[in-house]
Design brief:
This protein has 293 residues and is of the alpha/beta class. It has one domain: Spore Coat Polysaccharide Biosynthesis Protein SpsA, Chain A. The protein is built from nine helices and twelve strands. The strands form four sheets. It has a six-stranded mixed beta sheet. Strand 2 and strand 3 form a beta hairpin. Helix 4 crosses helix 6. It starts with a strand and ends in a 14-residue tail after the last helix. The mean pLDDT is 90.
């Protein structure tokens, strides 16, 4: 049975070091091709059936204007179907937008937590519709991790392997070494990661004393809710990398840092701009009536 793969693109809580007057995820990586478009295209190229962008209300409207509500699967787009109306057989990949829950603001909302929030939204939304469309695996693409998205096409089989995870690596380092490199995880690993974070994080109060039933002493402000500062190595500690598929990259740049971004611009490496129809923002038509009607 085909693996149901959901793509997760975390944006919320990313701490960019760029001092630009616009959201840094709109920085170009090629002519007419920016960071968020590259990440969406990477998910589509990896074979994702749905794409979930985790962005709060300040950025989600802007991102939707740029990438739209759905994209074409690049593999199916130019496939030579033996039919006159082959364009009707193209595969569409829907894009959904979710945010961080208010209860997690300034508590658990690290950048890595945004990934887990996307996994949770994909699972719960699918499960409420039907258990048959619940994702089997989740592919995570970071907008600020610049790689060539076209190369992932040949790795679809490894990415969709239900028995093993998939990791991009650069200089023998992966996301578990705090690099924003694509990887996959399962629903069971998501649960383990979430539980570990809730167990390790500090909270507002110190544990109650032996003779107390409830806690009464508060931690200093800077020590409360340590999970909001957890890095990738802590958030994804329970994602299995020992028995996994790993693909070593020839080059990689972390666009979170201005110096690394300019190094990419100056380098001989280049991200190819996809066919325009694969990156054009498409939106669903609004229902032409109001609730009163």
């Amino acid at each position: 049975m085909k693996t149901h793969l959901s793509g997760i693109i975390p944006i919320a809580n990313h701490e960019s070091l760029h001092k630009v007057s616009f959201p840094s995820l709109l920085l170009p990586v090629a002519d007419g091709f920016n960071l968020i478009q590259r990440s969406v295209h990477e998910c589509a190229m990896a074979g994702c059936d749905t794409i979930w962008i985790v962005a709060n209300q300040d950025l989600s409207p802007l991102v939707r204007e740029v990438v739209g509500d759905w994209v074409y699967d690049p593999v199916y787009y130019k496939r030579d179907f033996a039919t006159k109306f082959y364009s009707d057989l193209r595969k569409e990949v829907p894009i959904y937008y979710v945010g961080i829950k208010p209860k997690d603001f300034d508590r658990r909302d690290s950048y890595g937590w945004s990934v887990l929030e996307g996994v949770h939204a994909a699972y719960m939304t699918s499960y409420k519709i039907s258990k048959w469309i619940v994702p089997d695996k989740y592919f995570v693409s970071f907008p600020f991790g610049i790689t060539e998205p076209e190369q992932i096409r040949k790795l679809r089989k490894q990415i969709s392997d239900k028995d093993k995870n998939f990791f991009y690596s650069f200089n023998n380092l992966t996301v578990k070494d705090n690099l924003p490199l694509p990887f996959t995880l399962t629903g069971e690993e998501y649960i383990k990661c979430r539980r570990a974070i809730n167990k390790k994080t500090t909270r507002e109060f110190l544990p109650p004393l032996p003779n107390q039933k409830y806690p009464s002493q508060k931690l200093p402000l800077e020590e409360r809710w340590s999970a909001r500062k957890f890095d990738f190595s802590e958030v994804f500690e329970h994602v299995d990398a020992k028995y996994s598929h790993t693909h070593d990259l020839e080059w990689f740049y972390d666009a979170s840092d201005w110096g690394s971004y300019t190094d990419y611009i100056k380098s001989d490496y280049e991200v190819k701009t996809p066919f325009e129809d694969l990156t054009r923002a498409r939106k669903h038509v609004k229902i032409p009536y109001t609730s009163e009607e």
